[in-house]
Amino acid sequence: MTPDSNTDVQLQAHVYTSAARVIGGDPNRTFSPATSTLVTGETEAVLIDAQYTESEVSALGDMIEQTGKHLTSIFITHGHYDHYYGLSQLAAQFPDARPVATAAVVADIHATLDFQAKQFQGFFGDDPKATVLPEPLEGSVMYVDGQELRVIEIGQGDIAPSTIRSHPVDRHRHRR
Questions:
Q1: Which domains does the chain have, with CATH numbers?
Q2: pLDDT for 23-38, tens place per residue?
Q3: Is the confidence at residue 172, as pLDDT, over 50?
Q4: Integer angstrom CA distances of residue 147 from 10, 42, 43, 94, 170
Q5: CA-to-CA distance for 142 and 173, rounded, in angstroms?
Q6: In this predicted structure, what is the pLDDT of residue 158?
Q7: Which of 35, 81, 84, 139 is surrounded by the fewest CB atoms within 10 Å?
C-alpha cells in the first residue's frame, strides 16, 4: 500500500528465530540461528529475511498466516543463503508477496549463489537450489498500511553489502 493520511496505524514486529543447526554431523560445530522479522499493520505485512530449511520456512509461513495479514513483500537484508533460500517456498505459499532487496544485495546474491549453494551442501549435506531470488527494490521505502519502512544501506554488517529497515515498532518474539 502506498502512503496515505492514516498515520494512526500501529506497526508491530514479530520475530521468528530458527534453531541452531549442526554442521557436517559434528555436534561441536553449529550454524547460528537465523531470524526473520514480520512487520504488520492493520491488514498488511512485510517480511524481512526468509530462513532456509524447509521446516523453518514452513513454521515461518504458519506464523505469517496466523497473523491474518496480507504479505506484500519479502525484503532480503543481505546475500547470505540463510536469509534468502526460503524465498522459493514462501513464494509458493504467498504468491502476491514480491521478493526484493537493494540492487547491491541482489548483485551480491547473483555473484555468490553457486559458491554458497556448495558451501551449504558441505555444511548440511543438502543439495540446495534457490529458484526464486529477490528483485531490486525501486527506491528505498516500502509501506505497510501506508506507513513507511525505510531501507538503510549500512555497508558492512554481517557482510557487505548489508541493509536495515528503520521504523519504531512494538516487538513480539516467536521462537522454535
A1: 12-175 (3.60.15.10)
A2: 888 999 998 899 999 9
A3: no
A4: 9, 11, 12, 21, 14
A5: 22
A6: 57
A7: 139
Helix (H) or strand (E) holding 100: strand 98-101
Q: Are 46 and 16 in contact (CB under 8 A)?
A: no
| Residue 175: per-residue pLDDT | 45
Grid cell at residue 135: 528483485
Exposed / middle / buried, residue 42 (Cβ in 10 Å: 0-12, 13-18, 19+): middle
**DSSP line for 111-175:** HHHHHHHHHHHHHHS--------PEEPSSSEEEETTEEEEEEEEESSSSSSEEEEE---EEEEEE
Strand order in the sheet with 141-144: 141-144, 147-155, 162-166
Of the ranges 79-88, 93-102, 138-147, 151-160, which one carries the lowest mean pLDDT score?
Answer: 151-160
Q: Answer whether 102's CB lies under 8 Å from 137's CB.
A: yes
- Contact between 69 and 57 under an 8 Å Cβ cutoff? The reply is no
C-alpha 34/C-alpha 19 separation (Å) is: 8
